[in-house]
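User: Good morning. I'm curious how flavin mononucleotide would be positioned relative to this chain. Could you predict the structure with it bound?
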Amino acid sequence: MIRALHRWPGLAGLLLVTLIALSGAALSVFPMIEHLSSPQAGSELGVGDLAARIQAQYPGVEQIRRAPSGRITAYWFEDGAAGAAVIDPKTGQGVASADARPTERWLVNLHRQLFSGDTGRLVTAAGAALMLVLAASGSLLIARRMGGWRNWFGRARGGLAARLHIELARVAVVGLMLSSLTALWMTASTFGLLPDQTRMPRFPATTSGQTAIPPDQIAALTALPVTSLRDLSFPDTSDPTDTFTLKTDRGAGYLDQGTGAVLAWAEAPPLARVSDLVTMLHTGRGAAVLGLVMGLMALSVPVMAVSGFVLWLANWRARPRIRGNVPAGQAETIILVGSESGSTWGFAATLHRALGKGGQAVHVAPMSAFDPARYRAARRILILAATYGDGAAPASARGFVERLHSARALPDVPVAVLGFGDRSFPDFCGFAQEVAQLLATSGWSELLPPDMVDRQSPQDFARWGRALGQRLGLGLELAHLPVQPATENLTLISRRDYGAEVQAPTAILRFALPRTGLWQRLAGRGFARFQAGDLLAVMPRDSVVPRLYSLASGRRDGFVEIVVRKQPGGLCSGQLVDLMPGDSIRAFIRTNPRFHIGRSGTPLILIGAGTGIGPLAGFIRANRRRNPLHLFFGLRHPDSDFLFAEELADWQQDGRLARLSTATSRGAHPKHVQDALRAEAEQVLAVIRSGGRIMVCGGREMAAGVANALADILTPSGLTPAYLKAEGRYVEDIF
Ligand SMILES: Cc1cc2nc3c(=O)[nH]c(=O)nc-3n(C[C@H](O)[C@H](O)[C@H](O)COP(=O)(O)O)c2cc1C
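Assistant: Good morning! Here's the predicted structure, ligand included:
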């Protein structure tokens, strides 16, 4: 909702807001120029003396004005001609032309009204309102992204465009809000929408009847410092009923032209003072430095407009493409998609196309948009749901379970659930199974029994499609070719071999960082932005299904590193372990934010065995802040598969790794990593009690052993592994 409130007004008003901000930034320099180029009156000079000096130079003077910048201008009428000049208050003499600068006038016209009178004023006011909406919604988005207002200045992550957008926004947002609010106030004032702010008192009914008192003999003027003056108008001396008209920053009134007495006076109403303050804040007139600061902030708008547009375009290009999507209220079939990295959307598109060919009206939406009240024409719902880590919901299914709990089952709309997962994970299609169960207990009827697709298998999908076709009485052929993101060529630069002696050939493979284009860097996609714990999706020869390997390096390391163990009969691992320096593979990056080290300074316990050391080594290498990290590493034999042995020793030396505990499973005293944990139960518990986190990477059995050991270790504290997992303090990357 907030994102939509930021995105659509941002796109709609991109040019308008940029134009207003740029012209505003250009205008912000004029108050300073005016202030520096105008002779200033000292605070001791009174208005009476100033008026007398000017009158001595220009006997026909009719009006003296002082601008907030301190510039004094006099207007006179002499020998039948009007004159005006900027005045040096020391001499009363004109020193410069009073005409406004043409550039400034042009810019003001553009900024205030787009050269189009009242219509233009309304359009620019709409621009100010848009800016306000963008600043407010953007602030909420930043707070959300940073994990709360307290982290407002926390490190911004993402591609170049995202970082630029956030860095500028959090500095400039106050200025932009102030500019837009004050602009709206000024527009309301211009259109008479604010209560009356009249400053002038009623014109005096009687005067002394005398004329021509010199201004420097009028007490009200001599006592008034020039710095408080706004405007002094001289009376027509041929008309004794006329008066001096005086306006100051406190109020306004009329002075007798014969005696100098104050005939009428009105203090400025509070609202008028607010308006003065608003004008000063918006224009910088009277506060030139503030004006320049606001101008600088306004300059961030075009940069934010461009970076915001790039971000939107990157998301738009990566969005699932469903052609001819029927609105939810008119569709007979509703397809809901739960996906994290996008592949399930491809399956949904294939299903949508096939059903469409069969004459069906189909609506496809993310599971997070589940809203049965809108499904007025629906005859069935098909849910395609992927699973991420421990049976959790993927990104596009967030909130689905809550929505399901609060929805009533539609009596005539049966549901089919198709899970997408990977059998090598302990909780295969766990989320889809949870959804199917929840639907059954919530009273939804079943269209088909829940089914699963393993590793995006087109065969599994086609099989389910045939069952669905049969149920619907349609000949449904689901021929899906998974579309993978664009791959890059990675060239091997070095390899280190381990494990031959223990019958577990393992290699640390280091590839050169591929070149990234400007677009990738701006959008922060692919190899432009990755970190240890993300996944390298490698395309094996003779297969269209990528294999995923945890990355042991991040972009900042300047290379791409993975640890691979040759699996008996494994297609991809065999090809990788056979690579020689100079050989290359095709691969792309899949982000895996669940298994990132994060930036909090809390202590960390890293637990891994075998190739599971890969991402953990990457975390330690990236630990430039020297957060306390304690690594438990399970290996077979120190002489054969002590992966990263040299680096781990170096990292202990330079403080990136606080403590290393190893467990070797071969030899006289075989020990597993969970045994090492138990042996150091007290230290482990102390770290967890102090708010520390646990990250586990490795095989399924090892992870189960570690979970058991942790359950025992945690018992005295009343904590459980499940509780820590729910808090995000215990994460696993299991294969
Ligand atoms: C980090 C990660 C964790 C995963 N966890 C599980 C899991 O716990 N159970 C499962 O069956 N599949 C798991 N998978 C496999 C995905 O669910 C599967 O690849 C799915 O097809 C991805 O769909 P998507 O591209 O639409 O997100 C995981 C994949 C990744 C990358």
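Residues 339-344, 386-391, 394, 420-422, 425, 427-430, 456, 535, 548, 590, 592 surround flavin mononucleotide (CB under 6 Å). Residues 160-190 form the longest helix (31 residues).
Let me know if you'd like a different ligand tried.
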